[in-house]
Structure formats: C-alpha cells, structure tokens
C-alpha cells in the first residue's frame, strides 16, 4: 500500500530544529534540521501513524493531494510512503505465537541453549526472502 500526503515545511527561529512540518491530512506535526531531514521526518511520522491506525483497525485517511498554497516562504510538497516496506523495516513489535514441535527437538534445543524465537524469526526471514 502506497500513500501520498501533502506536507507544509515552515522555517522557525529555533536554531536546533529550524524546520517545522505540518501534515494536515493526518493532523500530524514533526520537525527537521534541514529540508531533507524535515521530509524524512514527515515520511517517518506518516509511516508510524498509518501502521498504528492499521494495527488498531482505524481508518487510514485518504488525501485529495491538494497542495495548500505556500505562504511566508513555506515549502509545500507531497511525500510518499510505501507502508508495506515501511512496516518491514520499522515494525519490531513482537507477538507471542504458539507452535508445536516434537518433544525430542524441544529437549535438544533447551540442552543446547537454543533461542527458539530467534531461530524461528531467522528461518522465517530466510524463507520469505525478507
């Protein structure tokens, strides 16, 4: 799922974070140290926001892609986020899975201090080419 939202980047008087970013379609705000960082922070904010909405079965707002007019030297642009790719790279929330393995493998694994969760995660990544 790819999404695109307009953002507004405004220059601030704060030297530490001189750019403020508004994301109107999701009522979001972030900041950046330069224009590139501001766009990256907006992309990150959007990705986290959409993943959270999806995980909580909330609607993902559509955008009409209408760019607000640039005023007072603001930069107005569109930011795209591939949510599926973003989730793969940033969703490290763990979940508990119940699985069944033969008793002898369980015993051997315990005897050899195998971390079953780590092993399963590694095997799934290899199998799924992730």
- Main sheet record: 4 strands, antiparallel
Give the DSSP E fraction (strand runs of 2 or more residues): 15-25%
Mean pLDDT: 91
**Any idea how many domains?**
2
Which topology of the largest domain does CATH recognise? Double Stranded RNA Binding Domain
Give the helix/strand layout:
Blueprint: E1 2-11, E2 19-23, E3 28-32, H1 35-55, E4 75-82, H2 83-90, H3 103-111, H4 116-127
Question: How does this structure look, described?
Answer:
This protein is an alpha+beta fold. It folds into two domains: 1-88, Double Stranded RNA Binding Domain (2-Layer Sandwich), CATH 3.30.160; 93-129, no CATH class. 38% of the residues lie in helices and 22% in strands. A hairpin with a 7-residue loop joins strand 1 and strand 2 (19-23). Helix 1 packs across helix 2.
Keywords summarizing the entry:
130 residues, alpha+beta, Double Stranded RNA Binding Domain, 2 domains, four-stranded antiparallel sheet, 4 strands, 38% helix, 22% strand
Please sum up the structure shown:
This protein is α+β, with helices and mostly antiparallel strands.
């Amino acid at each position: 799922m790819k999404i695109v939202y307009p953002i507004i980047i405004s220059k601030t008087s704060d030297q530490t974070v001189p750019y403020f970013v508004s994301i109107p379609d999701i009522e979001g705000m972030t900041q950046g140290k330069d224009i590139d960082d501001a766009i990256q922070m907006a992309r990150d904010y959007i990705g986290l926001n959409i993943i959270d909405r999806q995980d909580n079965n909330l609607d993902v707002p559509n955008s009409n892609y209408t760019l607000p007019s640039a005023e007072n030297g603001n930069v107005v642009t569109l930011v795209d986020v591939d949510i599926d790719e973003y989730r793969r790279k940033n969703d490290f929330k763990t979940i508990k899975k119940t699985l069944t393995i033969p008793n002898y493998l369980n015993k051997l694994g315990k005897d050899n201090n195998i971390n079953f969760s780590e092993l399963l995660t590694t095997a799934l990544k290899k199998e799924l080419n992730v």
